[in-house]
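Hey, I was hoping to borrow your eyes for a little while. I've been staring at a protein lately and its backbone has me curious. You're getting the sequence in one-letter code plus the fold written as tokens. Would you mind checking whether the tokens look sensible for this chain? Here's the protein in full, and shout if anything looks odd to you:
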Amino acid sequence: MAVKTRPITIDEYNLILDKMCSTFTYKTTNKDGEVEDKLFRANFKVAYALQLQANLGLRVGDVLKLTLNDFIPDGRGSFKLSVTEQKTGKVKDVVVNDNLYNNIKLYTLENNIKADEPIVKMSVRNVQMQLKIVCDELGINSVSTHSFRKFYAMRLFEDSGYNFEVVRALLNHSNVAITQKYLGVTNEEIEKASKNHNYMRNLKLINK
């Protein structure tokens, strides 16, 4: 039975990115079934792709097609991301953080990436393979590239005061029930929260 991909924590997010940007030796099994040492070379491009996922909430396939031209002025001094999702065909059209946009623009300038070229040019398979090596080395389980989109969703959920509707809109989900399932929040947890919510007081009339 396949293990369900889960959102990563903030600590795991930082550990994975730091490890991805480092060079280390890891154990692997060759085609003859023998265990051997292999060198993992620091891969900043994969780390950057995962950061884009975690900060924009896109699926990895959409991240790897993302260009600077996909960020357009919102008419109020900021920029918004406007892309069509490969999986759903839906348009994601949301304002992005100013510092995030500036970081992406600077990255393209420093790496001589044209505005109509993919910001991170590599295959989905390559990102997945590199991530698996790093997670295995760190002992982090049940994580895939999609964990970074779920990281985005969970951070939004917490930062919005646990507002399902905000997360639903930003993930382009059809309804809140899908978002609830996506976040892994069960009906029992919602029921427990409701049962524990009690701020009633025994009021007394104060005579003046």
